[in-house]
Design goal:
The chain is mainly alpha-helical and 195 residues long. It contains 9 helices and no strands.
Length: 195
């Protein structure tokens, strides 16, 4: 898969390599595009640069704040290339362009993957990756997931552990969605309140 992991299972090397590739692509876009219009820059960045920032992120999702900031800096640099938005703050530029931060996109994709898994989409790929506790007495959304206990801190950043914490923060109407399309629509509104 081309994912770099050091002996401590740290993904900072993968993050640095990803940022380097995305910055090279962004530089090529900047040098080759005469127009700085939204219609020219945004589709190119979405089609050519952002896939590098998001490839295999279910596996190597950034664990440290510095890694997350490096990835967000690439997207910030891309949005500053659009003419007329240079003076706006990062959040205002993203809102104006109709984009989400990379962190919010990762959260959405993790939760969508968990929803699909819990609805039976990946039965043969892993048994009990995410499971429900034995009792039904829970507060909040009523569909809680069991949290594993680990001796090593590195396992707390694994996909199943990240998803469980996020899943517990979701309201009942999100986790009880009847279909994936409904889940995606309701999730967007719920994450706007969480992030």
């Amino acid at each position: 898969m081309g994912v770099l992991v050091d002996k401590k299972l740290d993904m900072s090397g993968q993050c640095a390599l990803t940022v380097q590739k995305a910055n090279h692509i962004l530089g090529c876009i900047k040098r080759s595009m005469a127009s700085r219009s939204r219609e020219g820059i945004l589709p190119l960045c979405s089609a050519v640069m952002r896939p590098h920032l998001e490839s295999c992120f279910q596996l190597w999702s950034p664990q440290h704040r510095t890694d997350m900031d490096l990835l967000e800096a690439v997207q910030r640099r891309a949005t500053k290339m659009v003419r007329g938005l240079e003076h706006l703050s990062r959040e205002e530029r993203l809102r104006e362009l109709g984009l989400f931060s990379l962190q919010k996109r990762r959260l959405c994709e993790h939760l969508i993957g968990a929803f699909e898994y819990l609805k039976g989409a990946y039965k043969k790929d892993g048994d009990k990756l995410l499971s429900r506790p034995c009792c039904d007495r829970t507060r909040g959304n009523g569909f809680k997931l069991k949290e594993g206990r680990f001796r090593l801190d590195i396992k707390k950043t694994y996909f199943a552990m990240r998803v469980v914490k996020l899943w517990h923060m979701l309201p009942r109407e999100v986790v009880d969605a009847p279909s994936l399309e409904t889940f995606k629509v309701i999730l967007d509104g719920a994450l706007s309140n969480l992030v």
